[in-house]
Amino acid sequence: MPINVVLADNHKMIRDVLKYRLEADHDIKVVGDTDNGYECLSLVNKNNPNVIIMDTCLRSLDGFKVFGIMREQSLYNKVLFLADSDNSDNLMKAVDMGCDAYLTKDGDFAELKKAIYSIYRGDTYIQENLRQLLVNRNSAVKKNEKIANLTKRELDILKLLAEGLTNKEISETFKISDRTVKNHIFSLFRKIQVNDRTQAAVYAIKNGIVDITK
Fold it and tell me: Is the pTM of this model over 0.90?
């Protein structure tokens, strides 16, 4: 049985070319195409396709809204976003919403087919040259989560550590005991996953907690 596909794109020429090329090997069948978001929903409800190949920009209702409505209506057909450009904000939004695949129109047709087969099998697929954007975003999120887990006192002590203050100088600054300072340092080291004061200082500088240019 062929993989049934609905095409939703603003440009008729793109839809026609995709339909011709996708159906050339007879393992994919385009069961409907449109440039309208509402009509895309209608086609999905009517044909229950395996895969929807959808632009983020559509008439009447954009691709993100169509996707959101599908999920609200418990329509879990596979959704492959085929966007005009490698806009990182659109990529992040699509991934956060739970899309099955994300590619851009300047990619290879062979990769598009690979993505269709991949999500049909139940996997997810991000265009190869866009994957590093996700890696960078996820790395930044993890760093922010570490900093968010620090208490205000731990963050203040981290700043002073990066400035080179000793435990005694920190205890005098905050009028707390050496033991309390040591407890705070142990806690913040654990949270930001470093082993010593030098690593803590480097972490603070890299993440903009202290400004070494001043």
Answer: no
